[in-house]
Amino acid sequence: MRILAVSHSAILDVNRPLWMELARREHHVRLVVPSRWKNDYGTQPLRPEPLLDDAGGRLSLRVGRAAMTGHTAFQCYAPAVIARMAVWRPNVIFIDEEPWSLATLQWAALAALLDCPLAVWTMENRQRRYPWPFSLFNAFVLRRAGWIAAISDASMEVFRAQGYRGIVSVAPKVVDTGLFFPVPGDHKADEPRIGFVGRIAPEKGVETALDAMALLDGVRVPTLHVYGAGDATYLEELRQRQRRLCLGPDRVVWHGPVAHQEAPEAMRSLDLLVVPTVSHHGYKEQFGRVVIEALACKVPVLTSDNGELPVLVTRTGGGFIAPEGQPQALAEGITAALADRTALAQRAEEGYHYVLRHYTYGTLAEEVEGVLRRIVRDAAATHA
């Protein structure tokens, strides 16, 4: 198949393994990314990283001039970019953007013009009313798409409730097991270490984690290690909260931003990864990829019950769940998890093997390839 893929997240090489895996399966993949993308915290926009692996020449990167980059809803590509891709005559267009976005509308219109099947990979997990004109964008895309690749069961139900009549199935986020893996003989520090790894924002629940740390007492109180970047003003608010709670630098350690390639080492240093996400302005955790990344390193997790987190923890068997936004419950969960190291290791082992069976790029590529072949075959049958 000739697969035209569009993804702003693939501006970074770390987000390209799926496309590489599809190319290794003898498909020709053209991956379109915007010329820049403004991230959540950096002062400088991201620029496309070079393609490090072209899968034997079957994967190519196309950088397209784009406007309103950094805004999921409004980002769009220059017409000349779309025209150049039309000449290639893809067998299928696979868009890794939300169905209500302007960029998705553009590529869906190209699919209609070329009369080729369309697939959309979405993280939408809330049933909500879209304002005009995004409601129109969403309706057009759902009429045109042959496959909605939903991030989770909850996401899948959103589109079923909207009356989508095509194929809808779960295509979850997965983990690069070539980067996230356990190190044999790796020994943890003598003192228990728990940690948070990820984007530091109000919805991520670091405030709850700090409050929980203040409630812990006993002989072996763990240290909380925080790895991640966030808005400078919000980070200062968290440090002020730490001071008010009388948590010294021996109780909470701020490590700052950690590169994706360095995250596995940070995780492997922990006895327990804490993911205390809370509801904030309607936010619900869409998947929780940090959970499967930790489990791929054989590090158990303690998450809140927000969004998809409890589903993921229950499914993998790799951790524990506490009610969101409740410091006392989180503190009790930390204490209970660390009290029995044998049981903790068993959770990590169970989660690790589940991730290897269900959340790798190999398993995802197999699922994606199968559905793309199906919608291409169905489209051909319709035209016969």
Describe how the helices and strands are arranged:
Elements: E1 2-7, H1 17-24, E2 28-34, E3 59-64, E4 66-67, E5 76-77, H2 79-88, E6 92-96, H3 102-114, E7 118-122, H4 134-144, E8 147-150, H5 153-161, E9 167-170, E10 193-197, H6 206-215, E11 223-227, H7 232-244, E12 252-256, H8 263-268, E13 272-275, H9 289-296, E14 301-304, H10 309-316, E15 319-322, H11 327-339, H12 341-358, H13 361-383
Parallel strand pairs: 1-2, 1-6, 2-3, 6-7, 7-8, 8-9, 10-11, 10-13, 11-12, 13-14, 14-15
Antiparallel strand pairs: 4-5
Describe the structure.
The protein is an alpha/beta fold. It folds into 2 domains: 2-174 and 360-383, Glycogen Phosphorylase B (Rossmann fold, 3-Layer(aba) Sandwich); 193-358, Rossmann fold. Helices cover 39% and strands 18% of the residues. It has 13 helices and 15 strands. The chain has helices at 17-24, 79-88, 102-114, 134-144, 153-161, 206-215, 232-244, 263-268, 289-296, 309-316, 327-339, 341-358, 361-383; strands at residues 2-7, 28-34, 59-64, 66-67, 76-77, 92-96, 118-122, 147-150, 167-170, 193-197, 223-227, 252-256, 272-275, 301-304, 319-322. Strands 3-2-1-6-7-8-9 form a 7-stranded parallel beta sheet, sandwiched between helices. A 6-stranded parallel beta sheet has the order 12-11-10-13-14-15, with helices on both faces. A two-stranded antiparallel sheet has the order 4-5. A hairpin with an 8-residue loop joins strand 4 (66-67) and strand 5. Helix 1 (17-24) crosses helix 13 (361-383). The mean pLDDT is 94.
